[in-house]
């Protein structure tokens, strides 16, 4: 006869629900904290935002890589899908331009995602495998635009990665206007030809915008 009584079984269910609820709270909190502070943010801050004890965070995610992988595997899938969609655009220049603008804003909004995409693994094996899918997707986008004669032939997929990584660090969440201006400047430089420079919005940059590039840990306003 089983030693598990109905009362015991009923008593176990809330614990399972609580564990799943805590996992969701931790993931939501980690997404916020990593987006603002990067992947080295402390578990104590994640626990505070989640409203749970720090011990609960460690029980659910004993290693930092477990939490990073749980968060970012799906987000990298989204980046890969956007690159593949851009490479399939019938208008190669539109696909390239929209991908650059979207990529810059995605990394500006999420410092953790930016670090995952730029890191060479950092011990996150599953994330690294997902990340390795991105390079061929961006290469396909580059080649699509080059075959159409709109992208200069000496540009590679890593050039685009560097552009997105650098411009994603400019300004805070509210400075999309400045990043849009800078992406426009870069796109003019990537184009095979322009009859005239693309008009730029009159968007003034500040010293704080510049400081974000050189001081990643500086709070972004």
UniProtKB/TrEMBL annotation:
DNA-binding feature ranges: 42-61
- Name all HTH tetR-type domain ranges: 20-79
Alphabetized UniProt keyword annotations: DNA-binding, Transcription, Transcription regulation
The record's listing under Pfam families reads: TetR_C_43 (PF21597), TetR_N (PF00440)
Q: Which InterPro entries match?
A: Homeodomain-like_sf, HTH-type_TetR-like_transc_reg, HTH_TetR, Tet_transcr_reg_TetR-rel_C_sf, TetR_SbtR-like_C
What's the name of the protein? Helix-turn-helix domain-containing protein
């Amino acid at each position: 006869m089983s030693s598990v009584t109905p009362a015991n079984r009923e008593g176990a269910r809330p614990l399972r629900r609580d564990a799943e609820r805590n996992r969701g709270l931790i993931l939501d909190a980690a997404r916020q904290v990593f987006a603002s502070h990067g992947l080295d943010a402390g578990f104590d801050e994640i626990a505070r935002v989640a409203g749970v004890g720090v011990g609960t965070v460690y029980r659910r995610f004993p290693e930092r890589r477990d939490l990073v992988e749980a968060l970012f595997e799906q987000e990298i899938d989204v980046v890969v899908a956007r690159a593949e969609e851009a490479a399939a655009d019938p208008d190669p220049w539109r696909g390239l331009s929209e991908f650059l603008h979207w990529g810059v804003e995605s990394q500006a909004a999420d410092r953790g995602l930016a670090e995952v995409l730029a890191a060479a693994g950092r011990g996150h094996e599953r994330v690294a495998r997902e990340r390795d899918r991105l390079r061929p997707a961006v290469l396909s986008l580059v080649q699509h635009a080059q075959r159409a004669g709109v992208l200069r032939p000496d540009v590679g997929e890593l050039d685009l990665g560097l552009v997105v990584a650098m411009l994603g660090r400019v300004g805070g969440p509210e400075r999309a206007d400045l990043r849009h201006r800078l992406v426009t400047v870069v796109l003019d430089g990537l184009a095979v030809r322009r009859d005239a420079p693309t008009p730029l919005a009159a968007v003034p940059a500040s010293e704080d915008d510049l400081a974000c590039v050189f001081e990643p840990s500086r709070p972004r306003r």
